[in-house]
Design brief:
38% helix, 6-stranded mixed sheet, 2 domains, 22% strand, 20 strands, 467 residues, 7-stranded mixed sheet, Aldehyde Dehydrogenase, Chain A, domain 1
């Protein structure tokens, strides 16, 4: 039986909802369905815990984060098993996620919020302090339900806030289990973890007791969160969808770059907000790179993530599988050529092999929209200036990468791409020190690093007259 964490206690719901294994399409567990009354209780507990938690020294709060990190490391196998069962990723990838979450906790514990002295003379002293916002809500996506929870609650509580987290209805179990594991470390009410349907997200977004919302998910859902939060001017961090391009110039090591680009396309079955969603290859290296990627795609073992032989698991849910299938049909209707994959595998489980598509145009939905799955369009380019226009002709701007043997060329192109993160000769190089922020429809605010910590604070200026 899985329970929610409310005011330091594991709490069942009056109702439950089923959790499905995407590899078998079987419901294998029940998760509590949070009621409005339980949400109110969680928010009330967070409000009650706020004053004392905010008074604790940052050193004491750091210690809590470090203890949470050790606990996750000690229970990595257990959490990874749940991740495979409910999310679909391989067990090895589940271990990586849990260990990554522990690393994020440990790094966040090293951060500080020093007072900034902006004036200090015989007349006055002016200080800028970073103070807690209050009760913060975090809404967690289904692709990385452990590490994204840490991304939200770790900086929030280090800054002195208290937190209410909502797990995804597709993947609540690992998040709830993590809550149980850390419940004896974090004081009652400081972190509360709930599970429920999308309706719970609406209640959270408009709840008057919540002062900030940190949401990770689709752009469409993020707009709804922003609209609900607008009435009482809640602070927002929105990490939303992306249509992340990778650009590969001539002169690169074909085999090495093809391997790295391929991995960045299909990590977690393509279900990564900053994965490569569209690949642009210079015409002089187009075919050699494509040929290498075809070999890699055909070598994948698509199957249940609990099988050690599996290298790529299923999509997480039926809606996402249908989305990928629809995008492929739109590409084929416009003349797109399928080089690998291109059809659902089997009749049980949401399996879809890595699919590479060429001969598609920029305005085709497969190129113009976010697919969030194991299907990637590969396009050719000749002129760099024209390419940059093509790359930037989108409402999204989350991440991108540029691959070139000429570092100056790569840096010049990177500076012209409208994206919050641009990697050079790498992709998916997400580290806790580096802030992640989207431009345009890809987000509002920032996560991770010092700037991410500061986003969980308000600025308070204290001006002191002397004499």
């Amino acid at each position: 039986m899985y329970s929610m964490l409310i005011n330091g206690q594991m709490s069942a719901g009056d109702k439950t909802f089923p959790v499905r294994n995407p590899a078998t399409e079987e419901d294998f567990a029940e998760a509590p369905d949070c009621s409005k009354e339980q949400l109110d209780s969680a928010v009330e507990a967070a409000q009650k815990a706020l004053p004392e938690w905010g008074k604790r020294s940052i050193e004491a709060r750091r210690k809590v984060l470090l203890e949470c990190a050790e606990t996750l490391r000690a229970h990595a196998e257990e959490l990874a098993t749940l991740l495979t069962a409910e999310q679909g990723k391989t067990h090895a990838k589940g271990i990586n996620e849990v260990m990554g979450a522990a690393a994020w906790l440990s790094y966040t514990a090293t951060l500080d919020l020093p007072v900034e002295i902006i004036k200090d003379d015989d007349v006055s002293r002016v200080e800028v302090h970073r103070i807690p916002i209050g009760v913060v809500a975090g809404i967690i996506p289904w692709n990385y339900p452990v590490i994204t929870a840490v991304w939200k609650f770790a900086p929030a509580i280090l800054a002195g806030n208290t937190v209410v987290l909502k797990s995804s209805p597709y993947t609540p179990l690992a998040t709830l289990k993590m809550a149980e594991l850390i419940s004896g470390i974090i004081p009652a009410g400081v972190v509360n973890v709930l599970s429920g349907s999308d309706e719970l997200g609406k209640w959270i977004s408009s709840h008057p007791g919540i002062r900030k919302i940190s949401f990770t998910g689709s752009t469409a859902s993020g707009k709804h969160v922003a609209a609900s939060a607008a009435d009482d001017l809640k602070r927002l961090t929105l990490e939303l969808g992306g249509n992340d391009p990778a650009i590969v110039f001539a002169g690169v090591d074909i085999k090495s770059v093809a391997q790295k680009v391929y991995t960045a396309c299909f990590e977690n079955c393509g279900q990564v907000c900053v994965a490569i969603k569209r690949l642009y290859l210079h015409e002089s290296i187009f075919q050699p790179v494509v040929d290498e990627m075809v070999v890699l795609a055909k070598a994948e073992v698509v199957g249940d993530g609990s099988d050690p032989a599996t290298t790529i698991g299923p999509l997480n849910n039926l809606a996402q599988l249908q989305r990928v299938m629809q995008l492929l049909e739109s590409a084929k209707a416009d003349g797109g050529k399928v080089l690998t994959g291109g059809a659902r595998k089997g009749d049980k489980g949401y399996f879809y092999p890595p699919t590479l598509v060429v001969d598609v145009q920029d305005d085709n939905p497969l190129v113009a929209e976010e697919q969030f799955g194991p299907i990637v369009p590969i396009l050719s380019f000749r002129d760099t200036d024209e390419l940059i226009k093509r790359v930037n002709n989108t409402n999204f701007g989350l991440a991108a990468s540029v691959w070139s043997a000429d570092l100056e060329q790569a840096q010049t192109v990177a500076a012209q791409i409208e994206a919050g993160t641009v990697w050079i000769n790498q992709h998916l190089a997400v580290i806790p020190q580096a802030p992640i922020a989207g431009v345009k429809w890809s987000g509002v605010g920032v996560e991770n690093g010092r700037l991410g910590l500061e986003s969980y604070t308000e600025i308070q200026t204290i001006s002191i007259a002397k004499g």
